[in-house]
Amino acid sequence: MRVLVVEDEECLADMIAAELRRAAIVVDIAHDGRAALAGLRLGRYDVLVLDGELPAPHGDALRRYVVAERLPTRVLLLTAAGPDDRAADPAPAADDWLAKPFAPEELLARVVSLGRPARRAEPQVIERAGVTVDTAHGLAARDGRPLALSRTEFGVLEVLLRAQGAVVSGEELIEEVWEEHTRYGGNAVRVTLGALRAKLGDPPVIEAVPGGGYRMADGAGAEGPGAEGATESPRAGGEPEPGARRARV
User: Fold this and answer.
1) C-alpha pair distances (Å), 107 with each of 4, 85, 99, 111, 181
2) Among residues 169, 152, 172, which one has the least CA distance to residue 234?
C-alpha cells in the first residue's frame, strides 16, 4: 500500500508517517498543497491522508483533483470540524474522516480499511517456486522456512511474486516499493535484490533479465543468461540518501 500524507505541521506528519511505516506501508509526505498536487500527478496512491485545514492550495482543491482525474485514491480527512461543518462542506466528500486529536492506532486502522478496497482483487497470500508472502501479516517464507526481511526487501519480493514470472523493471520496483522523499543511486535495486537473494538462499529463484528487469523463476532454477547480475552483494554507496527526492533508474 502507498499513502500520501499531506499535513503542514511537520511533527504531526512525521508521527503519522512513522506509525504507517511500522505497518510496512510506503509513505510520502507533503507539507503544502502544491507539493501534494505534484505528488498526486506523479504517483499512484491508495490513500490520501489530508489535513482539512491545509493552507492554499486548500485541501478542498486536492479533493476536487482526485475526483476530477478519477484517481483510485481514497481520502482520509483529518479535521477539527464538527458534524454540521462537514455537512456544509462544498468540496467532494472524503471517503472517511478522523477528528483531531486522534490515536495513532485509530489512524492506522482507518488507512488500512480505506486501502483494502483498492487491492481487494489481489490475493493476500502469494506463492511461487516455494516462496510465499502473506501481505496481511507481513510474513515471508521459503519452503516453510521463515524469512527475516526488511520492509524494502519484503516489498520487492511481493511485487515480483505478484508478477508471476513476468518481467518487472527497476523503475517499476522503485515506484512500487521506495518512498518519494529518498534519492537512490543507480545500483539501489541491485543492492536490495542481492540482499534478498542471500536471504532466500539456493537454488536462486530471482532472475536478472538483460535490459534492467527482474522476474521470479518457476522453480526450475534461476541460473542462466542474465541471472548473474541479480547475485550481486550489497556495496557501499548503494543505500538511499535521506532527505532528497528519488531519481528514476
Assistant:
1) 13, 21, 10, 6, 22
2) 152
What does the alpha-carbon distance between residue 123 and residue 184 come to, in Å, rounded to a whole number?
Answer: 30
| pLDDT tops 50 at residue 189 | yes
* pLDDT tens column, 59-105: 888 888 888 888 889 999 998 765 445 444 545 678 899 998 899 99
Give 148-164 as a DSSP string.
---HHHHHHHHHHHHHT
Asked if 98 and 77 touch (Cβ cutoff 8 Å), the reply is: yes
- How far is residue 33's CA from residue 137's CA, in Å, rounded to a whole number? 34
CA distances from 28 to 4, 48, 80, 139, 176 (A): 5, 10, 23, 23, 12
**165-184 pLDDT per residue, tens:** 888 888 788 877 876 545 55
The C-alpha cell at 43 is 504517483
* SS3 call for 115: helix
Give the burial string for 167-189 (b: 16+ CB within 10 Å, else e): ebebebbbbbbbbbbbebbebbb
- Here the cell at position 49 is 491522508
- Please write down the long-range contacts of 69-72, taking CB distance under 8 Å and 24 or more positions apart: 69/40, 71/40, 71/44, 71/45, 72/44, 72/46, 72/118
Beta bridge partners of 70: none
Rounded to an integer, what distance in angstroms lies between the CA atom of residue 147 and that of residue 131? 10
